[in-house]
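FORM 12-B: Structure-to-Sequence Request
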């Protein structure tokens, strides 16, 4: 309630600036609990809005925005674009609060790293830009999309569609100024400055390739009359039918139309240079940070996977995440547990075995106030070209994040991330091995050879059925309490999930809810 009141008070300020209609609609929206649905929800764009932007939030550090002349509290989007263009071209990114972490990542992995300065983030809610600016990202809030007049559409179902159409409007603004516009989604990482790769100089559009059509998440538009017509028409479609067809469909439909009549020249960018998520990660077998790099790739689009949680996890696991929020990487105090899944995939019950090991790791981590670094998993289906699997091959990342907590575990590639201090990486315990009944069975079945575990410290709980007691775990690990990374050979059968341990039933229920089965694309 307080939040809503605050927002409304802000709206009162707009009143004085001549936005009385906006505030009225805003009140109506609050009546409909419009903002409670989260950051994903916005009213559809108004037919004839002014493309106002406001800086809002804390002021830009002057060093960050030296080139930009965005100083007044209300400036036009066009002025903001003009201030950020270099060499007649600009990269535009439309973003809302729900995707702020990914936007920070795009900035760090791509714009900052490659020194691409001609970018502008366009925020479409009231919080996202102030959040981004704290990270030195140049962002202007677009007022036209919020709290303005809207139709009677059903917010819940139409919002996403409407939001994507807004990108069309933003591109159009750049084109009308006579600039080349590269529009990119936030779930993208650039490996190279893409501009030299847009080589079709007489093309109106150069667009990345999805499975069957152009992907509106990454394309270059040149400021030609056909490109402007395309965007103006796609925007019209969006206004009329934006609740039913996506931005990509609207754009592609117009593209096809104009192409058929030879009114526009389009180039589909090579999938080899501009791969989508299927080509880069799946066909390219890139599941971990140490997978072969893609030397020819200009960028990758982390698409063809569902849920934001899984996208973020995939970026992290493949070494494409440089967002250090809450010292996710850089903490020097935090302590970790590392373990592997050495039993190979031909074991008949590999799924159960690896689930049990991960459960045991989470349990130990809780006891020891440490954070689990995920292992690699095996294939749970017969495979000819078997490879190691990340967590999303087997479980729903959204559930795992929800019940384990996104900050309570780390990706398998964690220790190889350049943001992790070398002091942490080097501070590791000897390899420990807790003897369990399960391990004894595996040894008997010749899946495992404990005798050959050289330089491994064997720890023997007094009751192999129960697993190590709390006291035993603390005693085993006490000598390494100062060590950052507590390294276990494996953790098969340390704790049986069904058995209930001293962590309490609520904790066990939580952890079992975390293991919701999923498959790689999380569909
Ligand atoms: C647990 O570890 C964190 C560091 O990751 C530390 O800040 C916290 O004080 C520890 N809690 C306890 C109870 O030791
Ligand atoms: C995997 O298991 C098979 C038995 O199914 C065994 O022949 C093979 O040596 C094992 N591979 C490794 C690397 O342990
Ligand atoms: C181990 O624990 C189980 C379950 O509490 C118990 O039945 C068994 O007697 C214990 N074994 C030993 C050797 O203490």
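FORM 12-B RESPONSE
SEQUENCE OUT:
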């Amino acid at each position: 309630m307080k939040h809503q009141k605050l927002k409304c008070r802000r709206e009162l300020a707009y009143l004085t600036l001549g936005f009385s209609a906006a505030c009225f609609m805003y009140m109506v929206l609050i009546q409909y609990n419009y903002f409670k649905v989260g950051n994903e929800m916005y009213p559809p764009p108004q037919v004839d809005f002014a493309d106002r932007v406001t800086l809002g939030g804390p002021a830009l550090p002057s060093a960050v925005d030296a080139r930009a002349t965005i100083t007044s509290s209300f400036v036009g989007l066009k002025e903001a674009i003009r201030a950020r263009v270099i060499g007649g071209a600009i990269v535009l990114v439309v973003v809302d609060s729900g995707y702020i972490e990914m936007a920070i990542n795009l900035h760090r992995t791509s714009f900052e790293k490659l020194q691409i300065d001609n970018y502008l983030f366009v925020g479409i809610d009231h919080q996202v830009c102030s959040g981004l600016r704290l990270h030195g990202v140049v962002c202007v809030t677009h007022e036209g999309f919020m709290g303005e007049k809207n139709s009677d559409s059903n917010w819940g179902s139409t919002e996403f569609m409407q939001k994507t159409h807004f990108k069309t409007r933003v591109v159009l603004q750049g084109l009308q100024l006579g600039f080349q516009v590269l529009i990119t989604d936030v779930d993208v990482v650039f490996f190279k400055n893409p501009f030299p790769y847009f080589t079709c100089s007489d093309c109106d559009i150069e667009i990345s390739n999805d499975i069957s059509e152009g992907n509106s998440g990454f394309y270059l538009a040149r400021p030609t009359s056909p490109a402007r017509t395309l965007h103006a028409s796609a925007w019209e479609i969006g206004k009329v039918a934006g609740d039913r067809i996506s931005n990509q469909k609207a754009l592609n439909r117009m593209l096809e139309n104009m192409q058929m009549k030879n009114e526009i020249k389009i180039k589909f960018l090579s999938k080899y240079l501009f791969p989508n998520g299927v080509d880069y990660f799946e066909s390219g077998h890139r599941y971990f940070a140490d997978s072969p790099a893609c030397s020819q790739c200009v960028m990758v689009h982390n698409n063809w996977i569902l849920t934001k949680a899984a996208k973020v996890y995939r970026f992290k696991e493949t070494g494409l995440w440089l967002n250090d929020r809450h010292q996710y990487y850089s903490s020097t105090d935090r302590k970790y547990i590392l373990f592997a899944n050495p039993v190979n995939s031909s074991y008949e019950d590999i799924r159960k075995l690896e689930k049990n090991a991960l459960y045991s790791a989470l349990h130990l981590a809780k006891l020891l106030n440490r954070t689990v670094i995920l292992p690699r998993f095996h294939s749970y289906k017969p495979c000819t070209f078997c490879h190691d699997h990340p967590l999303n091959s087997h479980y729903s990342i959204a559930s795992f994040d929800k019940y384990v907590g996104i900050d309570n575990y780390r990706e398998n590639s964690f220790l190889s991330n350049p943001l992790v201090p070398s002091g942490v990486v080097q501070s590791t315990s000897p390899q420990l091995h807790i003897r369990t009944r399960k391990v004894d069975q595996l040894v008997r079945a010749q899946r495992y050879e404990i005798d050959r575990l050289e330089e491994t410290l064997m720890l023997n709980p007094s009751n192999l059925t129960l697993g190590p007691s709390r006291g035993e775990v603390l005693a085993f690990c006490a000598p390494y309490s100062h060590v950052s990374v507590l390294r276990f050979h494996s953790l098969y059968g340390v704790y049986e999930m069904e058995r209930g341990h001293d962590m309490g039933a609520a904790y066990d229920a939580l952890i079992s809810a975390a293991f919701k089965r999923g498959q790689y694309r999380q569909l």
